[in-house]
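By way of example, we now present a protein record of this kind:
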Amino acid sequence: MYVFTFILKLCHQFFCWSAAIDFPSRVRAGEGLCITHGWGLVINPHAQIGSNVTLFHGVTLGARHIVSSDGRTLISAPIIEDEVWIGPHAVIVG
């Protein structure tokens, strides 16, 4: 099973590299995700994407890092709901 998972992750990395996108395998995405002209797509590993979402080229779903008063770093990432269309070069930060 480990070998199969390794091969899938290797394929994922190759296809992301060849399509010039940054789409970590840890991203939680619902059914029906559509990436249209995905060149330049960047998605933070903490982002959550709902069902039937369309992402166009150049979209960035980034994280926001907040340093609390006690010195801890808090990360907030976007949560994209179901049935959302995000147009070219949109930037959404947690």
Notes: DSSP finds one helix and eleven strands in the chain. The two ends are 35 Å apart (CA to CA). Helices lie at 2-19.
